[in-house]
What does this fold into?
Amino acid sequence: MSMHPDCERIMLSEEQLKARVKEVALAVDEEYAEKRPLVVGILKGSIIFYADFVRFLTMPVELDFMVVSSYGSGTVSSGNLKIKKDLDRDVTGKDILIVEDIIDSGFTLANLKALLLERGAASVKIVTLLNKAERREYDIAPDYNCFDIENEFVVGYGLDYNEQYRHLPYIGILKRSVYEK
Ligand code: IMP
Ligand code: MG
It folds into this structure.
């Protein structure tokens, strides 16, 4: 597999992603078998993970999306959550699964979970592709997580730097020279 020249190395290959996403999705499928969850994808970072994840679910599901931003264009969280696109429908009584690309400081997911519970969701659980546990500043943990990773800036499989690299089929570590200019 050829690697993008801006990547230092491939952290997670397509095959590793595929196998682990399936494993996690099947565990969620089992837990939610008797429910009808609303699966909320956080755009844009979760798109590829989300598309792979939901295709393993076998119960009736509703799909919806939110656009939130806590980051500017760089690699450090600005700690200011903005809702740029909200859900289409009311969440009262719904069992919600939030699908997110990565949990870093935890700011985005801590705020989002609180918001959805405040709006009357019956339950809110979090599914993440990546977890940078070392970076956590807010008291929140994913209910389901695919991979724990070190504190490195990664791109691909939906994750970006400056809106680039989201389409890469693997997770790669971005070369420092790309963002330290
Ligand atoms: P948090 O609110 O600090 O947990 O940040 C979560 C968001 O930060 C994610 O949805 C990503 O958009 C972004 N983020 C954090 N680490 C990375 C990374 O290594 N690569 C790309 N985006 C990242
Ligand atoms: Mg994001």
Summary: DSSP finds four helices and nine strands in the chain. Helices lie at 14-31, 47-54, 107-118, 176-179.
